[in-house]
Amino acid sequence: MMGAPPRYREPAVPPNPLLTTWPLLLGMGILMLGSGLQGTLLGLRATLEGFATPVTGLVMSCYYVGYLLGTLLAPRLLRRVGHVRVFAALAALASVAILACASWVHPLPWGAMRLVSGLCFAGIYVVAESWLNHRASRGNRGRLLAIYMLVLYVGLGSAQFLLLLANPQTSAPFMLVSALISLAMVPIVASAQQTPEPALPQRVRFRDLYRHSPLAVAAVAVSGMISSIIFAMGPVYARLSGAGTRGVAEFMAVSILAAVLTQYPVGRLSDRTDRRTVIAAVCILATLVAGSIAVFSPLPRALFLLLTALFSGSALTLYSLAVSHINDKLEPAQMVAASSRLLLINGMAAALGPVLTGSLMAAFGPRAYFGALAALAGSLMLYDLWRKSRRRPVPHELKGPFINTQQIVTCAGLGPAPLASGEALEPGATYASGAMADQGAAAARSSP
User: Fold this and answer.
1) What is the count of structural domains for the chain?
2) pLDDT in tens, 142-166
3) Residue span of the structural domain in which 68 resides
């Protein structure tokens, strides 16, 4: 007797990635509220407590030192105890670190706790992006990571207005930061069922990156300094310029959220023309705007915030432009390792920015904040124009698409995202921090 014919089964429909990753997006959004509030709160409180400006810069720089340590230690911890345990432990430690800052208001414990926070957030981002890449498919990874970056951006910008809920000279806002970091663990830990083993990127030499694109290496370093100055010393500048708590919150929110509007149009423009020209144009605009604020301050409030938005919206695209530029000159298999090294360069430069600017502000006053930013952007502009005279542009047919790595989030501690478990890197595809996913075009070697 012949068996019944097999039943026809509808092909499985892949689940909507947003339905499977919304706990991660929710948790990271909450975490960004805590992270964004923490940085601004410490800079503002340090100024209110009368910390010397160079000391404040040194304290704030300790975050980036911790970030560098975290990018080195997090993969080892992941291999030993797993993603969920590492995330829970680091989030708990970060929560304790901010409470310690409320208990001991002094530069030494603050510097130590800033270092601990940087280390913790570096590990947290590695876990979060690993899970995100594991849940995403090759077809939806770019869109999913773009939504992820938008959530982080909005969280960081919105956090600035939480300053208005409590007096920064009390322990209440510190407790709020701790509560937000702790609350972020709930949806992520409860939903992270299967996470991949991290895949460490292959090692590359810094001199090879410089040989491929000296401009990209310089732009990554300068963008690290600029972004760390904005995040770490922006609240200090606003307060020393006479702004109250609301004014500090508005200044930082404008500085952060402006970059949301500029990343895509600047990236599209760089895909259609020589990226070095776009980098030079961005630097020219940033230099003119920052120089104008430094020279003509004080300005009407509305004009000042508009110019601040123009500066941040242009300057905070530099990292994405630099990474896209160097990837135009690399083979696909080199891109992930190059991204890891560029993030390390970026982090090392970021650690210097607040210290340098704090010293300049102590010597020349608050105007030195935008003066230092103008000098950095102007220096990169001159170097860019010199490099354009030394090397031909990458042919249009060999250019890869713009990589929107979102420098604001990178400076919050974002590391390169590991490959999903069992997923090989195919030609023309890369995985890294932010929206750095599924490159479709071959990249060229260095031009003569």
Assistant:
1) 1
2) 566 667 777 887 888 889 999 888 8
3) 22-193+205-411
